[in-house]
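Sequence and fold
=================
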Amino acid sequence: MAFIKVENLIFDYIKTDEGGAPVATRAIEGVSFVVEKGSFTAVIGQNGSGKSTLAKNLNGLLIPTTGKVWIDGLDTSVQENVWNVRQKVAMVFQNPDNQIVSAIVEDDVAFGPENLGIDPAEIRERVDRALDGVEMGDYKDKAPHLLSGGQKQRIAIAGAVAMEPECIVFDEPTAMLDPRGRREVLAIARDLNRKGMTVVFITHFMEEAACADHVIVMDGGRIRMEGTPHEIFRREDELKALNLDVPAPVKLASLLRKEGVALPEDILTEEELVCALLEVRAG
């Protein structure tokens, strides 16, 4: 069942020139796609491809210039729907400092539910549950500015989870983190998805996109490719033409094929590569 439906989305940023006349800069050009309820969708593309603009259109932070975005049947361009849309779709941004608003971790996680008018007793339960879910329960009394980048991002995720949305859009949440922090945040997103959360994960790390059910490739504000990770990452030459890479196991398998090693074309993960090499050796 479709949870997010985007139909011919066009989005223009409007600025004024030196004479005060409005000037439109097109960021999204005729994008259409569907995100199934409970799925994990990755969106990849170079800087300036329109990924973040798309993300903000998915929870009503931005409203289409033309076209439509529906969230669980709600049209985001209808003002009366915006509150419900933002309850259904939470956002986690690239820089967690932009989302942290309180001086104590548990107060920050409680901020969203408090603004929803949730009963204090339930807020307490939600905060504890959300912090435990990202393994930050022991830090609830800490000051966020004392935490590492990865820990801050976990707090931002806990704040989103505490609002109990049906979907979380992650807008390059690992871009500012070290490899360990990236793995931890991706693991949390995958765990949320396994528990039924719809996840849209915007990233420029191909290994992260390889973990998704579905991949959307953007360039110049348009969708250039769409499919499963296996379908997308076997199109290595087309990705390179868009200045995108492929996951390391895909690249290594391609190099081995060129050296005459008989490997399947749909290798995506380290595990698949190791299994294929063992089969070649056994054969």
Notes: The radius of gyration is 20 Å. Residues 2-229 form a domain with the Rossmann fold fold (CATH 3.40.50.300).
